[in-house]
Amino acid sequence: MDEHYIISSSSTSSSLMIPNLQDSPPNLSSTLQFLLQSQPFWVNYAILWQICNTTQTLTLTWAEGHFHGLKNPPKKPVILHDYVDAEGSSMDDMVSDVEWFYMTSPVRSHQIRQGGILSKAYTSRSLVWLSGSHTLGSYKCDRVKQAEAHGLETLVIIPVSNGVLELGSLELIELNWALVQQANLLFGRLTFNDQQISPMCLSESSHDSDKVDKRKGKRGGQGYRGQPTTLSNHVEAERQRRKKMNNRFYALRSVVPYVSKMDKASLLGDTVTYINELKSKIQSLELEIEIMRECAKKSDNCSTSMLIEDVNILAGSSENNSKEISTGISPVVEVKMVGDEAIIRVQCENINYPCARLMNVLKELNVGIQHATMSTLNDLMLQEVVIARVPKEIRSEDDLKDAILRRFE
């Protein structure tokens, strides 16, 4: 059954039975672990948020946390099974939704003036106990919506000294006053300054997250007397694994230009979409390069052929020019056939409008003119005409040349 409780601290009862706290550990990490392990039900994680003053703005930031794990973890990993960390060792640990939600919490901060479930519990000093997916889904708060999206069934916010304590569970847990009383006794007498924790104002940048990881690593080395060595190693290994995972996903998020949401599934989905877009762009660019290469080859072949022809024509024209100048004889005509088209060059004296005479000749031959140019040098005129639709009877170079000469003279 869904339950939603917001209870002020004055309404709590002091007659409830709670576990013995004489042997409770003195530091924050161990205290959180002790709190979770002493409950009759399974709480997946605990996060202690502390208040700090950032640029004259009160903000709740990460102080310490403990991930209790899954009650019934799967035997085989199903997510990130091919992940390899920076040192080259494989990380085949499964990252569940609730663990991802916990791992992304250190980089988050909650301003008091912006409201939210954490700020509401801190300012009103009231317990907030949400249980049931319907209750979490109807609560208007980003933190609660993210918790519900990651499968949490119970979310508890307890105001404590210098901040609030957040507890999350995949199980549906009814209001338990023993847990509330135990949290108040553990963290009400334990101030954060006694644990040598300076205020941390976290941001979303990877630079700030590195600082957070370093501070957490320092606190992780402070164990309490009587704690087994294997447990300390397990806690440290978990922190190192979480740090490496966070760094890799921070790096992934920095190279993806747009991220729809900050959860694990959305980040990986947006990454896949971005990679597919890059592949499509690469294929399009490769296709354009191939087309440009083919066009360049054809253009080079055509340009080379035309250049050779132009050199030959100019060479012949130069020889004829010298003859014309030296002998002073009639106009010189050069014809070059290119398929159904022809290039005509006519060199003559600039007397009696040679341009008009050449146009009349071409009109008599019933050919189409595509392009024509003329230039003069002293007493000489050089005309160049590109024609089309050459009649079949004069389609050879010699026949066309003779026809032009007969009419032009």
In short:
Keywords: Nucleus, Transcription, Transcription regulation. The chain has about 400 residues and is α+β, with helices and mostly antiparallel strands.
How does this structure look, described?
- The chain is α+β, with helices and mostly antiparallel strands.
- It has 3 domains: 3-255, 2-Layer Sandwich (Beta-Lactamase), CATH 3.30.450; 259-327; 330-408, ACT domain (Alpha-Beta Plaits), CATH 3.30.70.260.
- Helix content is 44%, strand content 21%.
- Strands 1-5-6-7-2-3-4 form a 7-stranded antiparallel sheet, with helices on both faces. Strands 8-9-11-10 form a 4-stranded antiparallel sheet, with helices on both faces.
- This is Transcription factor.
Which descriptors apply to this entry?
alpha+beta; Beta-Lactamase; Alpha-Beta Plaits; 3 domains; 7-stranded antiparallel beta sheet; 4-stranded antiparallel beta sheet; 11 strands; 44% helix; transcription regulation; protein dimerization activity; Transcription factor
Q: What's the structural blueprint in terms of helices and strands?
A:
Elements (H helix, E strand, L loop, with lengths): L2 E6 L19 H10 L7 E10 L2 E11 L29 H7 L5 E3 L5 H8 L1 E6 L1 H6 L3 H8 L4 E7 L2 E7 L7 H12 L17 H15 L8 H27 L8 H64 L4 E7 L2 E9 L4 H11 L3 E10 L2 E9 L8 H12 L1
Helix pairs in contact: 7-8
